[in-house]
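Comment thread on ticket #2218

A.B. wrote:
> Attaching the input chain for the structure job we discussed in standup.
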Amino acid sequence: TMMLVLLLLCCMFWCGHGLTFEVGSTEERCVFDTMRKDVLATGEYTVLGQDTAQVSVDIQVTGPTGEEVFAQQKKEHGKFGFTAQHDGDYNVCFKNHDMVTRRIHLHLKSGAEAKDLSEIVQRDHLKPLSVELLRIKETIADIGLELRKLQSREREMRDINETINSRVTWFSIFSVAVVASLGVWQVLHLKNYFAAKKLI
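C.D. wrote:
> Ran it. Output below, let me know if you need it in another format.
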């Protein structure tokens, strides 16, 4: 339970504050987010610092099969959004072509956090607290979907384990039967051998 709370707090920190990191000169640095198929994701990045007029930082977002989802070159600020086409890890990579180290702030959202609720807010005249409750409801729905998917995987793994255990059991029975048969054959063979030599 404590680990779940810590994970939730880390997720809230990530969603609320984003991530700030440095990319050295001529280096590339990547972060990734694991997403399910058909999940919406949005991102916003900013190259921090005073000397950002001549920024040479490229960004590239790739999917789990290596396909390019988004790319932008030499921009100090940018936004992107996409819907995941496959289950797996989506990489966000920054390549620094400058001769100085660059600090980058990345704010990445996925699932309920990435959904734009502005139309619903204007249509239904929702208050900020109602908007947050709506986001929490969407997040709970996403978590429920993920739990159902994990349960399905657990059932598949249990079926595979039962199949393997059954095969191992039958293989063990077969091995014992073969060893017993060889033992009986050896005893009979030796008995016939000694009888032929008139030793018994």
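A.B. wrote:
> Thanks. Noting for the ticket: Strands lie at 19-23, 28-35, 40-48, 57-62, 68-72, 77-83, 88-96, 102-110.
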